[in-house]
Write a structure and sequence with these properties.
The structure is a homodimer of 388-residue chains. The first copy, chain A, is α/β, with parallel strands linked by helices. Chain A has three domains: 71 residues; 192 residues, Rossmann fold (3-Layer(aba) Sandwich); 65 residues, Arc Repressor Mutant, subunit A, CATH 1.10.10. Chain A is 45% helix and 11% strand. In chain A, strands 1-2-6-5-4-3-7-8-9 form a nine-stranded mixed beta sheet, sandwiched between helices. In chain A, strands 10-11 form a two-stranded antiparallel ribbon. Chain A starts with a helix and ends in a 10-residue tail after the last strand. Chains A and B meet through α6, α11 and β9 of A and α6, α11 and β9 of B.
């Protein structure tokens, strides 16, 4: 789909005039188109049916007057020009780079996104995980976020986060360190390095990855904007992991968005005497508990396609057949398909010495691959019906 | 119920002759009585119907000959006398001190229990929690187990555990430190201080609390006995908490017993990079996940009676009405039942100054107690239908 210059300019103007995620504005744009919405704002009269109850009517009146106040200062052409000079771009719903997944936000889908960086937003988010958490991360949270970011990147998954201090920054850094892709979704313009302490990271992401914002250049973040922004983090990614969060962390808001969107919500367990893990641990106790994840394979299992991205359950000796070392596998393969065999027989068939065979038989037995019967070691009865 | 001297002696002999938890022996005792079971062992012939398939017939033959070998060395009178001299006692199913809860073990219910210590087993286990975990506990696990033991004791709950090094010992110690009751269930005779490093703790428990064993005096523990013992820990208590466990910890076996018995199974989350928390964290990921617990109130909520033992969910500002401080409560009570009120009005009605009122209104609003309407602060519409 191509977006007309008029519509593009109108969307750029709307992204300056209105705070994003506004259902009333979404309805106006759906009814009148983006340029039509600007007309509505100019004349201050919305078509019938936009506000559906007295409260919404009240809110619409307040918003229309607020938007109109900002309208004269809108300079969409200037914003787009400056953005292009920075190497950035603005994308609109329906364009090739627009992630279809964002439609799950319904009336809270962004009207436009401002991007900066070489990655293609839609493509990079196809396999992506949001890694979020406390700004005031503990060394544990920082370490876990960085490792998770790097390990996701190594497996071809994109790390989506909010570019904040603490967990967010560690996750982005981990992804970059592993030469992977990462998407920072900001509550400020993609030309603003916020928080200032992350300026190096943000510059690196602009050069090698991607910065995303619903707000045009020059916009500063506010508390409310962080919350509004969180829905985009949850909606862009296949699932959200809360690495470390105290009870009032904004990442719990992102978690709530992921849950509402029906995306897998995960939490990393942490020490119960660490304030910074209280929020994540509480997610594991919620009525609809978050999935407890203790490593990257478990994260990918939760967000990946069934069957292809299954985590190996770390259970002492129980290993899938593929994971057995060569000798153990030879011993397993020397167990006859029918009846049983003694260690000496197995040793001969496997070409492995008896002491080694004895050790491996114990291992295989503990792993459930074989069992001891009256006539020696044998495959378990139920084996045939089981995927190996 | 009173147990005849003959039956008591027979059970004491059986507890020496046979390993506990044997379903075949349970069936023989059910069919022939305890003394009859000794006769069966003497003559080496069980009644029809004890073994129900060829495998069980094979096992029964092996066991009967094994039991008969031990029979001549049984000295139940001597064992009971020595136990009594130590201040101990042996109890049998149906006696006043026998916990009825053990019947949930079905054919694996103990035939007798050897006790040492002043507490009444049945009474002390009425409100009890098993706190178990790794022998090789980290400082985190030790700390959590000790705190949990003490906090359970302070609330009148008994700590049941296995008397092992690490988590078990810390939980027992915590309970004793808080002057509470604690039950150590051992895989050895109650006169044997095992592990030796816990001898001081075990002596203290014998003096102030309770040692329990299925084995008569002088018995040493074996690997198998630890596993057999674990079912008793799970069955004696209202629920089991795994504090810290690596993937091969015996406490995961206790956890499995608790699950099978339908008792609440809980796990304390821990750092994912700590080997000692891997087992507990995996319990939180199981297909039937353990309940994630981060403190004593959550443990008691899981095992306690519904309604009376409910944990306060630690969620930033959301508090039940009872938990509000006096000033906040006055502000809440100054909100009119119908219509709304401004801060000044509320301040007059509550007798609290306006700046304080403003702060409390924000808190109450965040907690969902009040909302801001066109005519000022008011009670939310849905409030009436909600328990406060």
């Amino acid at each position: 789909m191509t977006v007309s210059t008029e519509d593009r300019l109108a969307r750029a103007a709307l992204s300056f005039i209105a705070e994003p995620g506004d259902t009333l504005l979404t309805r106006i744009v759906a009814a009148c188109g983006p340029s039509g919405a600007l007309e509505v704002i100019k004349c201050g009269r919305a078509p019938d049916g936009i506000a559906r109850d007295p409260r919404e009517r009240e809110r619409l009146a307040v918003h229309l007057s607020g938007w109109r106040t900002r309208l004269p200062r809108a300079d969409p052409e200037g914003d787009l020009t400056v953005c292009a000079k920075l190497g950035g771009r603005m994308i609109c719903p329906g364009e090739a780079e627009w992630p279809t997944r964002l439609a799950d936000l319904g009336e809270k889908e962004p009207l436009a996104l401002w991007l900066r960086g070489p990655s293609d937003l839609r493509f990079t988010c196809l396999r992506s995980v949001a890694v979020v958490g406390s700004r005031a991360a503990s060394p544990y949270g920082t370490r876990v976020a960085q490792d998770l970011g790097a390990e996701l990147a190594e497996r071809g998954w994109t790390v989506v986060s909010g570019g904040a201090l603490g967990v967010d920054a560690a996750a982005h850094r981990g992804a970059l360190a592993a030469d992977g892709d990462t998407v920072g979704v900001f509550a400020n313009g993609v030309d603003v390095a916020y928080p200032p302490r992350n300026d190096g990271l943000i510059a690196e992401m602009a050069k090698r990855a991607l910065l995303v914002s619903e707000w045009p250049l020059g916009t500063s973040p506010t508390q409310l904007r962080f919350l509004v922004r969180n829905r985009v983090i949850a909606a862009l990614s296949c699932g959200t992991v809360v690495v470390e969060a105290d009870l009032r962390s904004g990442s719990l808001n992102t978690a709530e968005h992921a849950r509402r969107l029906g995306r897998p919500l995960m939490a990393v367990p942490g020490p119960i005497n660490s304030r910074q893990s209280r929020g994540a641990n509480q997610l594991l106790r919620a009525d609809e508990p978050a999935i407890c994840v203790t490593g990257v394979t478990e994260v990918i299992e939760a967000v990946g396609r069934l069957g292809t991205d299954l985590a190996v359950r770390p259970r002492g000796p129980v290993l899938p057949r593929d994971e057995l070392d060569a000798v153990t596998r030879r011993v397993l393969e020397a167990i006859p398909a029918r009846g049983g065999a003694g260690p000496a027989q197995v040793a001969v068939r496997a070409g492995v010495d008896v002491p080694t065979v004895l050790g491996r038989l114990g291992l295989l037995s503990a792993g459930g691959f074989i069992e001891r019967g009256r006539d020696g070691w044998r495959l378990p009865r139920h084996r045939k019906g089981r995927a190996a």
